[in-house]
Amino acid sequence: MPALLAIGTRKGLFLARSSGGGKFEVEPVRFSTIGIHSVAIDTRGSTPRLLAGIEYGHFGPSVMWSDDLGETWQEAPAPPVAFPERTGAALARVWQLQPSPAEPDVVWAGAEPAALFRSEDRGATYTLVDGLWDHPTRPRWQPGGGGLCLHTVIPHPSDPRRIGVAASAVGFFRSDDAGATWRPSNKNIRAPFLPEGAQYPEFGQCVHKVAQHPAAPERLYLQHHFGVYRSDDFGDSWTEIGSGLPSDFGFPIAVDPDDPDRLYVFPLHGDVDRTPLGHRYQVFRSDDAGATWQGFSAGLPEGPLHASVLRDAMCAGPAGVFFGTRDGEVYGSADAGESWSLLARHLPDVLCVRAAVL
Q1: What pTM was estimated for this model as a whole?
Q2: Residue 63 and residue 55: Cα distance in Å, rounded?
Q3: How far is 13 from 48, CA to CA, in rounded Å?
Q4: Mean pLDDT, to the nearest integer, of 212-238?
Q5: pLDDT category, 57, cuts 50, 70, 90?
Q6: 248 φ/ψ angles, rounded to the nearest 5 degrees
Q7: Which ranges in 45-184 belong to alpha helices (H)?
Q8: No. of H helices and E strands in the chain?
């Protein structure tokens, strides 16, 4: 099956294509010298659309799209993601681009400062979701180490009224009325960096990433600053599942497309070090929704290695499991993470990775 791998880096977008067999050919860089902080491969229509959240440096952030698999790119004549004047805010970055599986032309954008935008033209132009921006808790939101960023958007695959978002260091919020109103949904998520007696706040958790499987939409998996969690009720409550890991600190989390009970994490030494455990790359997989874990490193270099994997630099889909590192290497697995192959090297700092079967 032909597959496309999109690799966003600190200095450009790299596309890699495979005609099958797991071997990918990396094409020349697009948007050279421009940071690509978010990418999406939208395969919902008859023509796939690529979306890229770019950062022009002093020209500012924007979103561009391609309907010919990256050969040419277009941009809306006016800034596609922009805060209304009433907010007094300026867009710093587009952290997430997420097509909605329940609405054919809708794409969600997560932005910094923590905000959600909605597009109804497949990602060309966007409007601010006022309900989240005007949430009464917003004045007390605090940024994480990477900024006050809304980095995860979880649209329900069959009910467009339901959507979840995660922001650092704010927590997980959900809406059941298409974004008109929102409520924090962080029950049982511990924030150990807060004082004793205040470690289970309504909001204020430093959520790093949340993942969902479309076949089990109520099931969510969450990588916290310290801790890995599962929810079986779309975030109403959470259960800690990271006790079987050698470290529950990390950034990415991904769900296998064939099994909602199978998930992947990339543990790091936490909190200050933030390098791979034992200074070698290992992907940990659970086949039972987090009850037990097993580490895999076949095909990965033994080290010593010091580059981490960022929150959007790992993905799992029909094309395989992939991750990219901060020293510009990208690895892929065609057997659910049990063995790995080097797909690209000597790239700039990898910020995000997405893959799709075309």
Answers
A1: 0.96
A2: 9
A3: 17
A4: 96
A5: confident
A6: -100, 15
A7: 130-133
A8: 1, 27
